Amino acid sequence: MPYFEGKNMTAGYGDGPDIISSCTINVNKGEIVAILGPNGAGKSTAMRALLGLLNLKSGNVKLNGQEISKLNPQDRVKKGISFVPQTRNVFGELSVEENLEIGAHLRKDDTKEAIDEIFNLFPILKEKKKQIVGELSGGQRQQVALGRALMIKPSVLMLDEPTAGVSPIVMDELFDHIIKIKKTNVAIIMVEQNAKQALSISDRGYVLVTGKNKFQGSGNELLNDPEVRRSFLGL
Fold first, then answer.
1. Largest pairwise CA distance in the chain
2. Ordered alpha helix ranges (H), 95-167
3. Is the pTM of this model over 0.90?
4. Which partner for 27 in 33, 40, 75, 126 could form a disulfide, CB atoms 3.0-4.6 Å apart?
């Protein structure tokens, strides 16, 4: 049984057409799963459905075997699901340390230990803990966003385009950090446009087309699938 799963999800916006249809995505702890596909394929909609930002017309979402389809996003966060959006994912006018403290708002215990753990994962943030986040590079801001999301000690981390707008070198660094997070036994789902690079670090992947599961398999299987290579990887 998968640790976190959206099964046969069908959803859309308002009275409009369905954007995802019978879409299934799952992930286990200590695993990276990539959601790929062309623009308009329903990747972000699937993410929103998993987070509870969009009501399902059919299907369900389960966490560790427990049905959570009716829970609102805040209650899903309390269950241990953390999300890093593509934009507006840090407080630019606050320091690194203040951003991390805000990320711990749901915790009742002392946050110092948790902040120290984040600094161990992201050493550059320790160096710059008093610096205003708006003054950091794009890659460093993304590390702050990841650190904030990890402050609640989530069991599931969801990432929406974590490498958008950064250079190839910074993208590789961010992917290295995501692998480090995986090794702490967190289940990671990421929507990513850099499909080839994402699959190279992913245990499994899903390719969505017009809101439906078109391909799925291990990262290596998808990287070596001729149709996936031709249609989605530009190879």
1. 51
2. 96-103, 112-121, 123-127, 138-150
3. yes
4. 33
